[in-house]
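Methods, example record. To illustrate the input and output format used throughout this study, we show the complete record for DUF4331 domain-containing protein. The sequence lines were provided to the predictor; the line carrying structure tokens was produced by it.
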Amino acid sequence: MDSVSTDFTGLRRGAPLGDPRLDLCDLYVFPSPKDPGRTALILTANPKADAMHPDAVYRIAIDNDGDLRNDIAFNFVFTEPYNGRQKVDVRLGLQAEARVDAAAGSEIFGGLDVSFDDEPHLWRSRSGSFSFFAGARADASFANANVIAMAIELPTDYLGAAPDVRIWGRASVVRDGKWVHADRAGHPWVSGFFPDDEQLAEFNAGEPNRDQGRWMGHLIELMVETGGYTRAEAIDAITAEGTLPDVLTYNPRKPAAYPNGRTLTDDVADYRSRFLTNGRTPLTDVAPRQDFLPDFPYLCAPH
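The corresponding predicted structure is encoded as:
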């Protein structure tokens, strides 16, 4: 069987707003391998793996009541880089604080060093509830590629899953005095669903609670074209995966494997190719790494 190219992944697209620092790569949600009572949330960005944008807010958003609005937000804000160093603050926003564009909420970590070398700087909150890391790590999916990882590990009960939660990433930046949503991360490799740059920019700027109404027809047409689906088959496949809205759904009572969360070893390239081609075409030239760290932050040292 012929393999499909990686064009559908969006890997050949330019960075959001032309700035790689605003490019969100992947989102992972999985239980701690050593403590099933804790959950790891990892958002990766910036495929150049250098300093992050000092005017941006990077966010992991969590909805735990089903309305697809932020109930919990971990906000990451980076300083201006200086002499090869950079620091980061982490703010925790709850309810109304979680829904503003700026990094609102209480500071749970402040002025921490971003790791740009092999040895990760790991931090734990005073309460002991949160572990945190930010820095350069090897990309989980592509050999010889690096990213900046923002990783939080927390008690699973803190998520408030009933029985599941919806989690997504966001990168926003101020342009001309206004907040602009530059990129978002939920399901893997969704940018390839939008061959038109204007559509992709609109999608990235949107909110999950509007995804189904705005993009369902577009995705159905794409799947009819790429996979020979009937309209009914496409709707069934989208519903089964939960493709729209573009958020990761995670039920901690079930085994973690995409699309229930996403682990570092999930072969999402093959999954996405089969999804778009109605199971006919595997992707053979991209596979996840298998050599991860046994402890937080789990991603390996940069190349």
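Annotations derived from this record:
Residues 1-10 have pLDDT under 50 and may be disordered.
The chain has four helices and twelve strands.
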